[in-house]
Amino acid sequence: MNTPICNFLEKYTNENKLRLHMPGHKGEFSHDITEIDGADSLYESDKSGGIIGMSETLAAGVFGAKKTCYSCEGSTLGIQAGLAMLKAQGCKTIAASRYSHRALASAAALLHMNIKWLYPNEYLSANVTYDAAAVRGVDAIFIPNIDYYGGTWKFVNPKIPTLIDNAHGAYLKFVDKRKFGTEYLHPLELGFPLMSAESAHKTLPVLTGGGYLHFSEGVDFSRAKEMMSLFGTTSPSYLILESLDRFNSMIADNVQMVNNACEAVAELKARLESSGIPLVKSDPLRITINARECGQSGTEYAQGLRANGVECEMADENYVVLLFSAVTTLEDCERAEMAILFSPMGSPLPPVKFPIIKPTANMPMWEAMFQPRRVVAPEQARGEVCASFCATCPPGVPLVMPGEIFDHNVIDALKIYGVKQVSVIAR
Hints:
By secondary structure, this protein is of the alpha/beta class. It has 3 domains: about 5-255, Type I PLP-dependent aspartate aminotransferase-like (Major domain) (Aspartate Aminotransferase, domain 2); about 255-340, Aspartate Aminotransferase, domain 1, CATH 3.90.1150.10; about 365-425, Alpha-Beta Complex (Molybdopterin biosynthesis moea protein, domain 2). The protein has helices spanning about 5-15, 45-50, 50-65, 75-90, 100-110, 175-180, 200-205, 225-230, 240-255, 255-275, 300-305, 330-340, 365-370, 410-415, and strands spanning about 65-70, 95, 115-120, 140-145, 160-165, 195-200, 210-215, 280, 285-290, 315, 320-325, 375, 420-425. It has a 7-stranded mixed beta sheet with strand order 1-7-6-5-4-2-3. Helix 3 crosses helix 9 (about 240-255), helix 4 packs parallel to helix 5 and helix 4 packs across helix 8. The chain is globular. The N and C termini lie far apart (about 60 Å). The mean pLDDT is about 95.
């Protein structure tokens, strides 16, 4: 498959020109350039007919999208642009899982959009009901496709404008559903109009920051580039764009790449379970270990893995999350297996129950987040109004939003979550 961005960067490097343009390293990183003649411009690629637009068209074909826009700021920029497009179409209120990434809440606040929160039964779970009653009175819906533990939602057509956060699931488009099941689908396989914001860099061989905003058939994408430019950097990385461009060719040349990785992880899961390692059901490129069943907290278990040469994606009081990718090999899985099997097993510990808290809003997020603030311990915040997102990363999911009140239920829950300080509006 043609790789127009890669080809241009290689040609320009070989010409050995004196680089009297940005960036300031002047060619030390030879493929890192700016919007020079012939290099195209990310937010003008719809009308330029240049190399970025050509590559985006190839990516749309690879994913089966009506339109694909590249992002150099991950799925965050896709979420921001998607919400801005909904705003431009008249959307005032969206429905969303309470355990959506903070990128949703911050973008909605900046756009002065209201959010109707939908609550799952478990902390961080993506399994939220999006039936007619849940979305009554809203103009659009925001759906996380895969949560940090590897769970997903029950696929339904909300029949209203839909933006899906598929940050962890870009690879799902290439998974053989006959082999690995249909519980995990790529949004473009759902069969109804939607936008899908996804981070290529999480599960595909793409540099950090590489992402997509996909549009299915039936969605107006005419203002996509305009809305991306509202939030995106005016100096997008050509190294990231090059890696996105290269992936188009990689998957075209080796269509089984993702399935080979999924098969290696599936075999690893089977071996671990047969060895007594307690796993949580998760998507094909993730392993979530119930550490407390092994007699440790998740953070303690992660320390043991680290000592054995394995760094995990996330750990909390209950679980350890291992995130694999489209280029995972059998050797990678064997190495992970040895680290896990060398981890000591103890008597099971009771799980830490993270409560579902439903704070009351005192003022809109967009007002609260720009107020003067002070930082206090949670127990000193009773009756105060939250001034900034109370979130850790990973998972990047806010527990309390700007404008919400710290009541006794919220404060008690924050102690369980291990929160040491919060921001409140200064009086």
